[in-house]
Amino acid sequence: MQLGENLHSIGEAFGLALALVLAGDADLIEIVLLSLRVSLTATVVACLIGLPIGALVAIGRFPGRNVVLIVMNALMGLPPVVVGLLVYLHLSRSGPLGFLGLLYTPTAMIIAQTILIAPIVAALSRQVIEDLHAEYAEQFRSLCLTRLQTIQALLWDARYSLLTVGLAGFGRAVAEVGAVIIVGGNIDHLTRVMTTAIALETSKGDLALALGLGIVLLVIALGVNAAVQSVRMTAARQAYV
Amino acid sequence: MLARKLTATAVALVIGSALWAQDQSIIVQSTTSTANSGLYDYLLPIFQGKTGIQVNVVAVGTGQAIKNAENCDGDVLLVHAKPSEEKFVAAGFGTARTDLMYNDFVIVGPAADPAGVAGMNDVQGAMSKIAGEGALFASRGDDSGTHKKEMALWADSGVDPTAASGDWYRETGSGMGATLNAGIGMGAYVMTDRATWISFGNKQDYQIAVEGDEDMFNQYGVIPVNPARCPSVNVDAAQTFADWLVSDEGQGAIAAYKVADQQLFFPNAPDS
User: Fold this and answer.
1) I need a labelling partner for B60 at 20 to 30 A (CA). Which of A4, A183, B225, B263 fits?
2) Does pLDDT of B21 surpass 50?
3) Which value, to the nearest 10 degrees, does the dihedral of the CA atoms of residues B175, B201, B35, B245 take?
4) Which residues of A are less than 8 Å from B6 in CB distance?
């Protein structure tokens, strides 16, 4: 009986998801666009921070490097709610950066997600670049490349693998709810994104709609990944012409 | 080159986000019941149409709403825990507290009614019976207004449920909706405000078991945050909003809001 009802809500959720998308519901579009804007911006900023750090640690040999590696890898497991709290305490009006007035804005959400995924980008790109560097190390030495040139060459050569690293970061950002609900506040028409909307509908007991939104989120993630994949394939094809 | 372009895009997006906030807007730190029941979706367009002020609602438990307001992260506080609200004003965080509206708490339970409390209107008697039977009871356990009220009722009943925490007494540490979902999932009794219950979508076979005791009265209050304590407050807009809520027009709008033909909140602001 119970199981039958639950299965019924899953079926209903697919119907609702389809209806929402087909109707082009204005609220839904707004929420989807904000989700994309926040998480894509966070991904870009996290890559700008994480890729150089990952590359530097990959090719660098310095005391305490192992400790840095362990810390970087551990930070991939940062709990979103802890990041949210830390950012809240800084951006709160009574916090050190309160004068900026950024709490409960999309910017605060971008900051939180950037902190959350920059370590993922750094740690994964470090591994990718280190493996590649091991292959090319002799060649680089014979060419007498500077460290900057080496990093540039490695980043460029690993660009397709690094795209996947970026996607891993984006996936984490667009799927998390703990950080954005604290620093964004889930304000309707201002800071409500897909995950916080799903949390809200769940708390209202509207499980079918919550799941429907979840399906839409999954489809968006699929779309972003497909877009990146097609860019990658087009570029690869051109490279061999 | 690509990196520079990306940086420029990122900077533009961040600056764009910062400009996103509208100038005539306020943040209301609110309890969840008023938001989850859809009251704001009904009231705010009326208020904004009249004044042009954009009201942004952050819906969290009363405990967290008060804490956020004390951190100056809101312009108006709208919650339901009178003693805590009066403390908030006494400590200088709010200018003044006004009674706004009320509804009542109810205890909902499964149709099977394992503790045999269905139909009771003596809440203390019902709670002692639930404890005596060791029937499952799911509590917010999150220092919210509802949780504070529940603890006061347990104290009146002469029961210390926390001694049985994890046994028949289950503290979810979550919001009202999450606690209802969890309680219904495990077949536990749950105390909730009537507005949340009426508009709640996942009732399954649950019904109101205990209601009608005057001790289950649930008073909401509104408090503008004190600009002397929090200079960032949008004083005029906050006062305009608080004044409108307690005005004849605002009170009329609160009374007019219905879900499934039932009035959810009963305005009771004092005549000014």
Assistant:
1) B263
2) no
3) -130
4) 44, 47-48
pTM for the model: 0.86
User: Residue A51 domain-assigned?
Assistant: yes
- Using the Cβ of A204 and the Cβ atoms of chain B, whether some distance falls under 8 Å is answered with yes
Yes or no, beta carbons of B199 and A204 under 8 Å apart:
yes
- Full residue range of the structural domain in which residue B226 is found: 2-102+218-267
At A165-212, the pLDDT tens digits run 999 999 999 999 999 999 999 999 999 999 999 999 998 888 888 998
Please provide residue B172's backbone torsions phi and psi, each rounded to the nearest 5 degrees.
Answer: -80, -25
- Find out whether A39 and A176 touch, Cβ atoms under 8 Å: no
Q: Give the Cα separation of B184 and A120 in Å (integer).
A: 38
Q: Do B88 and B223 fall within a single domain?
A: yes
Minimal CA separation from B44 to chain A, in Å: 11
- Please report the pLDDT score of residue A10 as a whole number: 81
d(C-alpha B146, C-alpha B137), whole Å: 14
Question: In the prediction, which pLDDT does B11 show?
Answer: 54
Domain presence at residue A177: yes
**How many structural domains is chain A composed of?**
1
| Residues in CB range of A29: below 8 A, 6 or more apart | none
